[in-house]
Every structure is written in structure tokens, then in C-alpha cells.
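Q: Here's a chain of 283 amino acids. Please give me its 3D structure as C-alpha cells.
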Amino acid sequence: MAMVGEVESTLVHRPIDAAGSGVSVARRFVERVLGARDATVIDEVLDPHAIDHSATLVRLLPLWLAFPDLRLHVEEVASEGEVVRVESVVTGTHTGRLHGVEPTGARLEGRRTHQFRIAGGRIVACRTDADLRALAAQLGTPVTAHPRPDPSGPACVGVARRAIVQRFIEQVLNGRGFVDGPGYFVEQPTDHLRGSLASCLMLAGTPDFELRVREVGEERSTVIVLADVSGTRSERSASRSVTGRVELRVRVTQDGRFAETWMDAVAVPAPAPGQGVRSVVAV
């Protein structure tokens, strides 16, 4: 059976409005979740244990931050068994920062390839091809990625693992150095997609977010980080301060790369004038 990332040449091209469950599920995920940030669709199309092999956090979040009006339109669909491949056209306006590049107002138009494995009417695995360096070049501002910090010694253990994860938070997330992000990961990492999508939705809705690390621990080769997040969210004609909590778990290989990630976030909107403190809201 073909797996995500190993799509066979026997894929059959389908009409983009095909009624087949796999095709329609993949299309809804691309257009409604990735393109429109519609969280209400996630439960319909995504298996609770779905995994992604694209380092979701560093490939999806920068697009949502830099192009708030980002949209994905499905142009071509092909499928074979459980595997569905989707070709989409991405459009948006550069009105947010990308790797230190200030907004240019330029229009983005590009293509993305998405591959899915679907079982039981839901996505169980996926992979999306996205070249952030090429994207920055299209905006007229080529960037040079910073080197990933090397672990000390022949094997990345203990303090070195924790230091690399903390550097990732400062350099890639807080520093918006997303072009550097993929360099931290193995070639096909395992990302637990539900938590990453929820975290991306919260952080993208708070463009000036900052993560402040509170605790760093470790279980075997997995680094566990608890962090506070703060920022400002625009709601209609007003802005509201948002605070929240993030838990990031990263399984780090002996050469200091990220093999598996879990991320969960909850936001606590500040109370509106005249209101009491609100309950924690899961994003």
C-alpha cells in the first residue's frame, strides 16, 4: 500500500468535485482548515491521532502570520486506495512579518502539493510540500537561514537536548525565524497534528505573541517545555490582550534533530471591561 510521501504512479486523477469520501475529506481539509482556518471542520475531517510529516508548526504558522488573508484553492486531485494527492493554488497578501521581512503588501501566488492517507472517512496521515526560502525570494527579499545549534559531544543528551529546544523557541517561534525551522527537524518528522493545528490557530490569531519558558524537563529523549504565551488579538473593531499556556514536547535524536513533536495550547482572553475573569478556553 502506498504511504504518504511514497505516492505511486497508479494514482487516478479525479474531478475536484468528486463525491468520493477520501477526495472530499482531503479537499475540505485543504480549503477549509488550511485555507480558511475553520476550526469547526477539524473534527469532521481529522482523526484524533492524525500525524503530519511536514513539521506543521514551522511550515503552516508562518503562512498564517505573514498572509492573514491566505486562501488555498484545490485545482487537481488524484487518488489510489487510501492515498489522496491534492494540488492547490495558494494566494494571499503579505501584511505580516516573515523571517524578519517587514510587510511588503505583495501578492503571493504559488502551488502546494498535499498528500493524505485517509481511513474511516478521516485523515490519519499527511504531508505538505512548502519551501519557505522560495516564498521569501518571491517577495523580493531572499533570506539566509541561520545555522542550527550543534549538540555538544558525539551524542545529544541531557542539557544539550534541552538547550536546542529552547533555542528553537527563541530563534524560530519568538524570533519569527521560520526559514530556519525545518533545519531543526529530521527529513520526515512525526507531528501530532491535532495539537499543532490548535496551537497554530491560537498563535496566528495573536500575531505579536511571545512565549516565555517557565519549566523545562525531560523524559528519556523527549524534552518537555511549559511556557506562558501573551499577545494581542484583534476582534472586530477592538483589540484584546490574550494570555495562555503552551506545552511543547520534542523527541530529540542523538544528532540533535527533532523526530517527533506534540504541542498543545490554551488561550485565556483578558476580561472585557465590566466582566469578570473568563474561564480557560481551549483553542
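Q: Can you summarize the key feature?
A: The two ends are 35 Å apart (CA to CA).
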